[in-house]
Amino acid sequence: MSSLYAFLAMGGYAIYVWPAYAVFFIVLIADTVAPSLRRRRVLRDLRTRMARQASRQQRSRTDLADDNPTLTSASP
Amino acid sequence: MSNWIPLWLHKLSSPPTFYRFAGTLRPWAMALAVLFGVIALYGGLVLAPADYQQGDAYRIIFIHVPCAWMSMFVYAVMGVSSLIALVWRIKLAEVVAMESAPIGAAFTFITLVTGSLWGKPMWGTWWTWDARLTSELVLLFLYLGVIGLYHSFEDRRQGARAAAFLALIGIINVPIVHFSVNWWNTLHQGSTVKLFGPSKIAWGMLWPLLAMTLATKFYYIASLFHRARVDLLALEGGKDWVRQIAEDEARK
Hints:
The structure holds 2 protein chains of 2 kinds. Chain A is mostly helical.
């Protein structure tokens, strides 16, 4: 137990050594998490855009069909 | 003459191919980074003896020096891919340059903070306008400038070209950082580990340092691939291969 205490004490330099290592890990973990969050956001935005496009296409198709009934048979 | 290497590179620079390639390699790079990182931490914090002058405070070296090397290495990669992006207008080169910038900034930030935490007990000050410290701070500002310029344009590719130009000009600072300890005799110590010639460090302290160097290299590969993949998804949002991925992820 005392060896663990000695390890954590870092020969009296604990207040410099451990914050340095903490900064190292916090910055690199943030660097890994940030693109993961961006990926989720990018794909979610894209799906919203795709859904909007699909509904617009659907609407224009039905509008055309109302105006001109012959188009219904022409377009699948 | 065999031309399979340029052919392979040409194929790899197509966004969907690179997306898959990077997706396959990323977990391996990350696993190697963690493996070497754990070995280095054990070697540096537990096995390596205390320094006869600096006691245990010197153990900051095991993250400070590898991160400092990475701050310059990442800038060199960013500079070279900026040049490729400007000359040949390859989209992947723009992505690699622009996505390297935040990683390089992260390593530079860690270098400055850990250096400050090391400087306080050894030099008696958190900060001084020493040549090495100042040029490293300029390096951080260059990274931040590249990131800022890139995001200040409405058109992403136009922004990437402007920022690539800045990155290319700023590469002059990399040799200044490296040689600053030789050119100006201020506070920061000279190189301890030398690529050519004998290093001035005991093997028990050197190997954890080299292991952490490998860990940070692999981490850079993993992080760059991760970021580049996300950036390609954002840039190619109108293309079928990205729409397929968006649909597949929604089903999960």
